Every structure is written in structure tokens, then in C-alpha cells.
Amino acid sequence: MTVQPEGEDLRKATRWISDERLDNPGATLKDLIEKACIKFDLSPKDADFLIRFFAEKNNG
Prior knowledge:
Blueprint (H helix, E strand, L loop, with lengths): L7 H16 L5 H11 L4 H16 L1
Helix pairs in contact: 1-2, 2-3
């Protein structure tokens, strides 16, 4: 089962991080999540979601 992010800004951040990982494979996920939180004005709860989402994506 795939968890979908709630809220347009969180969906945009998820898409942006995915694109950035393809364009810049040397960037760390932590740095990309931090940048996404600033760029899309996300909350700490949203950051936690992104960490879990991408960890699950990498393991699945």
C-alpha cells in the first residue's frame, strides 16, 4: 500500500524531491527534504512524512 501525501504543497515537495534526486544524485535526502520544507513552507510534521515516504520508497 502506498501512502499519498495530503495537501498540494506536500505533493509538490514530493515531486520536487523526486526530480532533484534524478537531476542531482549526489544530493543527500536530508538536504533535499530541508530545502523542500523551506521552498514549500512545510511543517515539521510534513518533514517527518517526507522522511518516512522516501525511506519506504527506497525499501520497497
